[in-house]
UniProtKB/TrEMBL annotation:
<dbReference type="GO" id="GO:0005868">
    <property type="term" value="C:cytoplasmic dynein complex"/>
</dbReference>
<dbReference type="InterPro" id="IPR005334">
    <property type="entry name" value="Tctex-1-like"/>
</dbReference>
<protein>
    <submittedName>
        <fullName>Tctex1 domain containing 4</fullName>
    </submittedName>
</protein>
<dbReference type="InterPro" id="IPR038586">
    <property type="entry name" value="Tctex-1-like_sf"/>
</dbReference>
<dbReference type="GO" id="GO:0007018">
    <property type="term" value="P:microtubule-based movement"/>
</dbReference>
<dbReference type="Pfam" id="PF03645">
    <property type="entry name" value="Tctex-1"/>
</dbReference>
<dbReference type="GO" id="GO:0045505">
    <property type="term" value="F:dynein intermediate chain binding"/>
</dbReference>
<comment type="similarity">
    <text>Belongs to the dynein light chain Tctex-type family.</text>
</comment>
<dbReference type="GO" id="GO:0005737">
    <property type="term" value="C:cytoplasm"/>
</dbReference>
<feature type="region of interest" description="Disordered">
    <location>
        <begin position="1"/>
        <end position="37"/>
    </location>
</feature>
Length: 215
């Protein structure tokens, strides 16, 4: 039927939506009529199930918009050690403590043999130096390596419970006169020393090994 006209000749205005008449607006996506969004209700339910300290702490993390990002670490973690169970932890090796033997003298036939040690020193110097040319820059490292070599070889012929002190003197061969002397405070009945020399056309070496009985 034709639309009714008012006395002025205009059509009837549409239904007044502001007064609640007509089609109501569609509810928000993901929500039901008269209920808040599901995400907000779920978040509020999670907070309601948390204990009071955690809930207040959770809410305090977002209470300062625009500020610095809050730290979620605990203060006590900054001043404590954290151990991880199941991981291999390396423990310090404890030194084995032995009982006293109360032996103040070496056993019979177990003294420092100076003649045998001297033979070892002479053979080690001859094989290590040979035709080595003297060098002022490399003489210090050469002397250090000779000390380690002579000490390790002398230990093979020295009885146990002896402490060894090894000295090596290196110099350039120039037909000069040189005297090497040493003094020690020890027990002459159990302690002794051995020395050996070596020389070639470029250098000479004097090695001395002192053997002191360790009580």
């Amino acid at each position: 039927p034709p639309a009714e006209r008012n006395p002025t000749g205009d059509q009837e205005p549409p239904a007044n939506l502001s007064s609640g008449q007509g089609i109501p607006p569609a509810p928000a996506r993901g929500t039901e009529e008269g209920k808040p969004p599901l995400l907000l209700s779920r978040r509020s339910s999670i907070l309601s199930t948390l204990p009071a300290p955690l809930a207040s702490r959770r809410s305090s993390l977002g209470a300062a918009p625009g500020g610095r990002r809050p730290s979620i670490g605990c203060p006590w973690m900054l001043h404590s050690h954290v151990s991880f169970s199941g991981l291999p932890l390396f423990q310090p090796v404890l030194k084995t403590r032995l009982e006293n033997t109360y032996r103040m003298r070496p056993d019979k036939g177990c003294k420092f043999n100076a003649g045998r040690v001297q033979q070892v020193l002479e053979g080690a110097l001859a094989s290590a130096l040979g035709t080595t040319v003297y060098s002022p820059q490399g003489s210090a490292l050469l002397a250090q390596s000779l000390v380690e070599l002579l000490q390790s070889q002398a230990k093979e012929v020295v009885p146990p419970r002896y402490k060894l002190v090894c000295n090596v003197l290196l110099g350039q061969q120039g037909q000069q006169s040189l005297l090497v002397a040493s003094r020690a405070l020890w027990d002459p009945e159990s302690d002794s020393f051995a020395s050996a020399t070596f020389s070639n056309a470029s250098l000479f070496a004097v090695a001395t090994v002192h053997g002191v009985y360790f009580e």
